[in-house]
């Protein structure tokens, strides 16, 4: 590592030490496919066994902690349920000591097990974890131990830049947990994927993960049955049915965990994608009935589960629920229920807690979310256009469209957003410029000037005011980089995905749908953040951010593996080449993004820790973190971009843009 990299790493550690990094890892609940993870593992011995498959999702509850580096120890501070803080757990970052602590068992062993795996695979220092709040019930089938393991793996990954993906964190957490006396299943660490549901397939030692986009919010209740079960006994009895079935009972167990389970998971995945709570609830009831028929006889002492079945059959709950089933290894531990709506969920919780004496956790499987909002930064000074920008903001420079109408550039960009189905637009402006922008969109001209307009222009004036009612102008008090500008919209965006557009780029599409809409459709289909990309020759890449990766659809969508900010041609040729592109061309950022709200957390960390690049808070480094944490798609945009940010490009853009048809908002969008 060079001197400059060492300095940057030391500074990073100093910032992390002083400020800490906040992490949250939820528990996980297995919606369908319990036991299929270990059952599918037997395919190593018997290939005739069906691969296991399961649907899991994160809970609303989990483990909250702040983390920072330590020069040579693993230190874990915890806060107990009664608010007291026992002495911290400490162990030196030496493999032998960490292994001994992991094998000793208990709560702290999980952190030690993961730290041991980190030490034997990477060169790192120590870690301090301040577990200030845990609202995840333990030993209730919600994988509290796995959440601890993922938290520790994620802390090492983020603090020491191990460049692990979510899948990598999940695997490291699994290795850490099985270093302890725990014999967890492979699906437990799926909590690494957070709140979003995933389908996991288990084929011997291989695991495949597919994220699901939920079509509509689904109201669930996780119920602590306030009883008990012997998970070891359940697993022992069921494992006796593998790897080769020798009697009818064992064949029925393998049948349920194989083809029956595959069918249930397939249908449940379809119901989740459609947001069909009624079908999902009915499938849970069906799954429980089939489980009772096929698996209960293998371990009747634990799986007869009278408390679970009393809850599922309780008469007062039936009008409020679509269905339900047991959780995890089943038995009298926990249950999961699908409520008809939020009101029914709350009523059911009252009945369960007051009449049955059980504890409830509400859980919402949330829709992947339609992209409703767009953010357009327009608070820059426009240095390259000086002195024109002393008189006119570059975002207000005139642009002549193919229809011959002269618009301010910002209006053209907003129209691109509205034509893609966006409902609300935020434009980031300097505080002193807010009135100027509002006057364009929110104030009609004086009546004497309005009367001088043609009938068509008067109608367009009315349309402009209607557009203004869908635009919010947010003041950006200081301009400290593109990342800082995006972060300024955090409160306005909230917890929604959003379209990010540049305030000095115009766009035209080569196909019937606009450039922004192309990205939005991909996001809503995949629930992955998307950036628009455009091939450019090597001698132009130094003007743009660039990306590379692996094709999902050749020439169309890309699973991005790296973002690079304005590389030179030599770097691009060595690191960014991609099969299928014209010779000596590379993928440059188009200037359109659809981002998940998690980007704000990453930007917030950089700003809190004052991590600047070239003196400013940049977006590209946070996009790369989002890519590593959550995955990121690149899409080749079928269209063209026109840069109005510098004089030469502005002149060329005016000439090209005026000759290219622009996708206009639909008639329905023109009305307020």
* Uncertain segments: 1-19, 666-672
Relative strand content: 15-25%
CATH-derived architecture of the largest domain: Alpha-Beta Complex
* Strand elements, count: 24
- Per the CATH scheme, the topology name of the largest domain is Spore Coat Polysaccharide Biosynthesis Protein SpsA, Chain A
Radius of gyration: 28 Å
Going across the biggest sheet, name each strand in turn: 16-15-12-17-22-19-23-21-20
> How many domains?
3
Question: Helical percent range?
Answer: 25-40%
First-residue to last-residue Cα separation: 58 Å
Indicate the structural class. Answer: alpha+beta
Number of helices: 25
Could you give a short account of the major beta sheet? 9 strands, mixed
Mean pLDDT: 86
CATH superfamily of the largest domain: Spore Coat Polysaccharide Biosynthesis Protein SpsA, Chain A
CATH class of the largest domain reads Alpha Beta
Shape: globular
């Amino acid at each position: 590592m060079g001197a400059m990299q060492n300095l940057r790493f030391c500074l990073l550690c100093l910032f992390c030490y002083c400020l800490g990094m906040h992490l949250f890892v939820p528990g996980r609940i297995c919606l369908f496919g319990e036991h299929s993870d270990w059952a599918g593992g037997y395919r190593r011995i018997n290939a005739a066994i069906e691969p296991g498959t399961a649907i899991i999702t994160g809970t609303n509850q989990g483990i909250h902690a702040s983390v920072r580096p330590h020069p040579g120890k693993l230190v874990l501070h915890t806060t107990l349920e009664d608010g007291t803080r026992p002495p911290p757990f400490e162990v030196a970052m030496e493999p032998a000591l960490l292994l001994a602590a992991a094998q000793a068992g208990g709560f702290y062993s999980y952190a030690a097990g993961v730290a041991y795996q980190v030490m034997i695979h990477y060169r790192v220092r120590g870690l301090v974890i301040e577990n200030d709040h845990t609202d995840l019930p333990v030993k209730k089938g919600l994988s509290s131990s796995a959440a601890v393991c993922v938290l520790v793996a994620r802390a090492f990954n983020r603090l020491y830049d191990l460049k692990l993906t979510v899948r990598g964190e999940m695997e490291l957490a699994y290795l850490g947990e099985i270093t302890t006396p725990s014999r967890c299943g492979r699906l437990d660490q799926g909590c690494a994927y957070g709140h979003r549901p995933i389908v996991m397939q288990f084929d011997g030692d291989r695991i495949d993960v597919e994220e699901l986009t939920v079509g509509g919010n689904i109201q669930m209740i996780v119920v602590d049955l306030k009883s008990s079960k012997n998970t070891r006994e359940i697993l022992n009895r069921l494992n006796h049915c593998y790897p080769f079935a020798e009697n009818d009972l064992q064949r029925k167990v393998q049948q349920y965990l194989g083809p029956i389970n595959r069918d249930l998971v397939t249908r449940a995945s379809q119901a989740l994608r459609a947001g069909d709570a009624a079908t999902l609830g009915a499938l849970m009831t069906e799954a429980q009935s089939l489980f009772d028929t096929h698996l209960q006889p293998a371990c009747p002492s634990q799986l007869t589960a009278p408390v679970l079945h009393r809850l599922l059959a309780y008469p007062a709950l039936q009008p409020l629920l679509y269905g339900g089933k047991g959780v995890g290894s089943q038995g009298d531990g926990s249950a999961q229920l699908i409520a008809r709506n939020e009101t029914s969920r709350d009523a059911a919780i009252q009945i369960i807690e007051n009449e049955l004496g059980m504890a409830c956790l509400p859980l919402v499987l949330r829709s992947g979310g339609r992209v409703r909002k767009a953010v357009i930064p327009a608070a820059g000074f426009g240095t390259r256009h000086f002195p024109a920008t002393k008189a006119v903001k570059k975002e207000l420079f005139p642009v002549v469209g193919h229809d011959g109408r002269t618009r301010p550039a910002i209006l053209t960009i907003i129209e691109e957003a509205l034509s893609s189905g966006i409902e609300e637009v935020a434009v980031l402006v300097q505080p002193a410029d807010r009135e100027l922008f509002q006057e364009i969109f929110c104030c009609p001209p004086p009546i004497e000037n309005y009367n001088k307009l043609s009938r068509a222009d008067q109608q367009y004036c009315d349309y402009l005011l209607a557009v203004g009612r869908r635009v919010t102008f947010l003041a950006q008090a200081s301009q400290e980089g593109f990342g800082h500008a995006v972060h300024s919209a955090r409160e306005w965006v909230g917890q929604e995905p959003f379209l990010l557009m540049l305030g000095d780029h115009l766009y035209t599409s080569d196909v019937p749908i606009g450039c922004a809409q192309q990205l939005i459709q991909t996001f809503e289909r995949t629930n992955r953040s998307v950036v628009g990309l455009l091939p450019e020759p090597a001698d132009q890449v130094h003007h743009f951010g660039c990306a590379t990766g692996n094709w999902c659809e050749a020439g169309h969508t890309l699973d991005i593996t790296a973002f690079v900010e304005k590389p030179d041609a030599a770097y691009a040729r060595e690191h960014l080449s991609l099969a299928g592109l014209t010779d000596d061309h590379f993928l440059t950022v188009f200037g359109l993004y659809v981002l998940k709200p998690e980007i704000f957390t990453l930007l917030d960390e950089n700003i809190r820790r004052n991590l600047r690049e070239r003196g400013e808070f940049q977006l590209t480094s946070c996009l790369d973190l989002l890519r590593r944490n959550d995955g990121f798609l690149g899409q080749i945009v079928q269209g063209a971009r026109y840069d109005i940010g510098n004089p030469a490009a502005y002149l060329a853009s005016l000439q090209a843009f005026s000759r290219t048809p622009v996708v206009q908002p639909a008639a329905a969008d023109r009305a307020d």
